[in-house]
């Protein structure tokens, strides 16, 4: 769908196709009390920064999109992440502790990224998603301005990642 109004029409069509009214009526709900609404919303925009291509392009991206988030970009570079954040103004940036690992990239960490993002836009919620869950990394992340720090163990099943992300953002 190109517009939110298209999404609302598609939702109303799905209500009819799935025969939700009959399901509710079978549960004893008076059909006069059943209202049909086509809801449309724009999901929170998310930017992913992770050194692992599979995490950026499939696992995390797929989980987030299935939960209604709009993934506006994915990278392993601080510079590119900052450019994408400026272009798309995401609500959330999900990052890893260590990003690109090359000899020329001396300080490619999520900690550095978080500091730069918070300077660029203090409203962006930065959430770490990492295997490196030692207290020292957590302290550095929160000191840099992170909103949350999740272990990558929450990515399977994807609903667990979505639940943990929502808890973190609503804390």
Task: Provide structural commentary.
The longest helix has 14 residues. With 171 residues, the chain is α/β, with parallel strands linked by helices. It is built from seven helices and five strands, in the order H-H-E-H-E-H-E-H-E-H-E-H. Strands 2-1-3-4-5 form a five-stranded parallel sheet, with helices on both faces.
- Overall structural class, as computed from helix and strand content, comes to alpha/beta
Please report the number of helical segments.
Answer: 7
- N-to-C span: 32 Å
Query: Overall pLDDT, averaged?
Result: 85
C-alpha geometry: elongated
**In percent terms, what proportion of residues is strand?**
5-15%
**Strand order in the sheet with the most strands:** 2-1-3-4-5
Order of helices and strands: HHEHEHEHEHEH
Assembly form of the protein: single chain
Low-confidence stretches: none
Topology, element by element:
Blueprint: H1 4-17, H2 20-26, E1 45-49, H3 53-66, E2 70-75, H4 78-88, E3 92-95, H5 110-120, E4 125-130, H6 135-144, E5 148-151, H7 158-170
Parallel strand pairs: 1-2, 1-3, 3-4, 4-5
Helix pairs in contact: 3-7, 4-5
Keywords:
171 residues, alpha/beta, five-stranded parallel β-sheet, 5 strands
Q: Outline of this structure?
A:
With 171 residues, the protein is α/β, with parallel strands linked by helices. The protein has helices spanning 4-17, 20-26, 53-66, 78-88, 110-120, 135-144, 158-170, and strands at residues 45-49, 70-75, 92-95, 125-130, 148-151.
